[in-house]
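Q: Structure for this?
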Amino acid sequence: MERDLTPDWILKQTLNLQQTALMSFLKEKENAMGGKEESSEGLTLTVLGCGTMGIAILGGILDSLSSSRSQQPDTAVQDEPRRLPSRFNACRELGQYEAFKHLTIHQNSNVKPTQEADIIILGCKPHMVRGVLRADGMQKAVKGKLVISICAGLTEEQIVEFLPSATHCTVVRALPNTAAAVRESMTVIATSPTAPLDPDTDALMTWIFTRIGRVARMPSANMDACTALCGSGPAFIALIVESMAAGAIAMGIPRDDAYLMAAQTARGMTQLILTGGEGGKAEHPAILRDKVSTPGGCTIGGLLVLEEAGVRGTLAKAVREATVVAGLLGEGKGGVNGTRR
Ligand SMILES: NC(=O)C1=CN([C@@H]2O[C@H](COP(=O)(O)OP(=O)(O)OC[C@H]3O[C@@H](n4cnc5c(N)ncnc54)[C@H](OP(=O)(O)O)[C@@H]3O)[C@@H](O)[C@H]2O)C=CC1
Ligand SMILES: O=C(O)[C@@H]1CCC=N1
């Protein structure tokens, strides 16, 4: 049978392949945990909407639990939570039910895995959260639990509004990024000056998100900007790496070599920004940029092309735009990119 090769069909097939590959990644991580016995004290963590981000987060946690590799020193958890997660539920809309020793993948069934959970991560699209939480049986299942939302734009108040007053959940907003899959996420956890988390919940939040990278804390009011910078940021950086590689490809460098060289160059510079200062401290990007720019050399020539094209302002504007759009995502409507002039 001939297929209709529409862009939509091709995109769908690509996404399906990606999701299948990601689920294999998760199973591999689970498998690596095989020998570990579950502690009776262990908590159950359920991801409602286990797609790109949910898989990256669970993968990072499973990886951390299965390896003796300790967390990076700068993300060390000062106060370990009393109890750690040891059982995991991944809930999806499609796919199939699969049960492993530590992980169960559920398809189109949220109530039971939510009943089993001590911690719930909301990992579906922001506009779905209302429907997911208001579905039959969910209000009771979620009652009194720790609900962590990674959804762009949704405020804690909006999530609480989806739950009846008797539900008494602790709702915390956290914004990780896709680098969670390689345990290099930058996750921002929202803080509330009026309702600080109890120390054990706070320690649990730190533990969960330091499994997948670094953690920072910001007031809730800053979360949309953090979403743009840290959540969308990886896509912006991918575009920069891709564009630099394109220049080299145009000048005759083989494609694969160009991507590798551009990516490693970006990685080296980000490492310098983080630790290239005196005593291993952070260094200002402008100082590092100046160090590369030999007077009369090629770097200053290239930099001026970028400045003349307004790259700095354009990138800053992209972060500002993404901040505004992130805020609109919380309103539960689709197509928000088309709503502004
Ligand atoms: N992608 C990113 O880089 C980041 C995303 N976020 C936020 O994370 C959230 C998830 O994004 P992302 O992982 O990219 O999205 P995905 O589309 O990859 O994942 C969403 C998941 O939700 C599942 N799902 C859909 N409907 C239901 C339902 N009724 N019950 C249970 N699960 C359901 C989907 O299942 P199925 O695949 O079977 O349809 C899918 O697995 C969003 O809210 C986003 O704002 C935050 C930071 C970064
Ligand atoms: O683009 C989005 O809506 C999500 C949130 C941050 C990154 N990806």
